[in-house]
Structure prediction request, 196 residues.
Amino acid sequence: MRPRSRLTTGALTWALIVAPQALTLAQSRGLPRVEVAAGGGFVGIRAAEVASRPAVDCDPAGNCATVDGFVDLLDNTHRVWRPALATGLVLRWSLEPKNEVEKDKFGVGLGGQMVFTPQTEGTRLLPALTFHAGTQDKQLFVGLLFGSTDEVRFPGGASTVRVAEGLAPSFIEPNRRHKPNLFFGVVIDGAAVLKK
Prediction:
């Protein structure tokens, strides 16, 4: 199992600790407003990639030599950040009850969004769950994008595989990884569709 990146761990920790506390405070202020929001941001997708290196064999004494005519393939999956557009609904609680201008009230909320996600085979529409902070039409959000992505799988679960030089077998299996990806960005337009 590969170690989870510090960025992913930090975002999940923040989402599990800070977001519930903010929502608990917001709920004490009354019922939420249902708002429609459109925005843009970045999706952190795990991009499956196979890298190659010269094949090397070592004897018990530690003497190593390259193996002519062969290369070793290894999993070089890494996170790439791609721009994405999204739209959806947000349940938002106001934290400024004394502010008379409703759309200018600062608040926090939970959103369900559909995200136009660029991938190697084209743009896919994927769902996301997001936490929002800001006013009606100016918000920052962070959350999780749900959907399948490609994954590198070598025979027998091996971490590397040796092949003849010049061969290019594909060990990337499409839509095999079913784990959430990070999604963050800003709401650039919002409007209330159901007032409290």
